[in-house]
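sorry for the late reply, my laptop died twice this morning and i had to redo everyting from scratch. anyway the thing you sent over, i finally got around to it. pasting the sequence first so we're on the same page, its 260 residues, then the predicted structure underneath. double check i copied it right bc i was rushing
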Amino acid sequence: MQRMPILAGCAATALMVCSTEAQAQAWSATSPEASSCYPSDLLFASKSDGSYTFNNDVWSPCQGVPVAAGEQTIWANSNLDWGVSSNQPDTGHIKSYPHIGYAVNKSLSSLKSLTAVVSAITPSSGAWESTFDIWAGNKAYEIMVWLNYTGFPNGCGNVKPISASWTFSGCAIPIQTKVQLSGGSWNVYEGSNGSNTVYSFLRTEKTNQTKLDVLAFMNYLKSKNYFDDVVLGDVEYGFEITSSPGGLSFASKNFSVTAE
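ok and here's the structure:
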């Protein structure tokens, strides 16, 4: 989904901690319940750490038609250890995408390899996806790679991919099924969020641990003529949360991106 841009720096408020001293985490930020795009410095609280950037990314109150969001706290020690506690109401629409990002900014043809490693901890309830969000062509294309999620690979359930085609029962219709990439089988969906084209790969066997061959997904789409030799921008990974009433915790361990 198209989201608000990352806001740089740390806000000096009581709800946001940017100190490495006397804290349980090196950095954390809490956004309150919100029905409008305020306070944006907390909804999109951001922290850079070397090549990586963390973002709270509570974007639902900032849509054209705002959707109220609940309190959310993102925390990070490093790219190898970060997570989020989120209390999102049990209503429709995605509320947030707390994530870590890595800027690649290279054309596909110039890359020999591009891999990402992650080990996640996810709850057993709620409505969410543990997903990569990859941007290309100056954000003309968004490629989502769902590793674990509370819906179903066939496009049904309480979370569904963006799609141009739907069944009468309200399930997304894939453009390809059981595509073999990066050691997994994936159903592929295509659609638009109104701002850019979205390709979603849903792993048919869900997992919380992976070493993902990101370049393989990009070259697959290129081979199908969905785009040409585009510049790959940011590789993001996080948790797209629709519902987590009462508060649910997510964590990402050992995340790293290697581009050559």
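Helices lie at 40-43, 214-223.
thats about all i looked at so far, will dig more tmrw
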